[in-house]
Predict the 3D structure of the following.
Amino acid sequence: MGLDTRKGSTRAIPLIVFLLMSIPMIYADDPTLIDIEWSGDNAGIYYYIVSGNDTWTEFRSVGAYIIGEFHAIDYDDDPGGLGFDTFETKVKANITGGGETELENVVNGTLARSYTKIETDDFGYLGWKTITNSTHLLNFNSDDWVNGFEIQAEGDFNIIHRLLNPENEGVIIRAESNGTATIYINLDKEWVTGTTFESGIFYGCDAWGTGSAEFNLEAYADNYLIGDLGYELPNGGLATFTLEYYDGFSVEDFGSKGD
């Protein structure tokens, strides 16, 4: 058994999109710095970056108005002596007037992966920082980059975030509204090392919103699972948490850890 890893909603958001910038594939020769900025009306950007045999990153953002930046560095350090370098990526992406933003980071050696998608008919924001090497994938909210809520949306929105180990164990967070609402999600820190994963646990993750929407958390592990919401499954299993809110909500410390 594993978590449902489908990429989520196929909600249609009407857009007239032209290609502002397309970077079909970038091979990051060691050492490499990549810096990209964009902005435009009725625009889209797509990139796919392969960092040697270390990590691949895929990003897409389209919308009525988009603005953002992406930065990456391959440190050419091979910290584990296994031929995999430390690779760092940072992105900030804003949508105004409706659109979609999608980001995936995958560690080539272990296939640990992180995936986030925001769909909205109004406003969306993704601020994200990931560091990978031969042993782990680390997402974290750092003062020098995000320093706030990493995922934000307003209006009629659909959000999905996944953190998965090589065996499809991990955490899936979903949020969806069917009208005018807002949501802010802060995961603070999450990582995968081997088959062990942590998403926000002990680090003070939180979420809040206004209006009417739904917030959902699923966590699954084969051997052991514990969560800040009070569940502990010594032999593994599936834990779920769903909150339907009609006049705003706030939830703190919903992190999970498993193996």
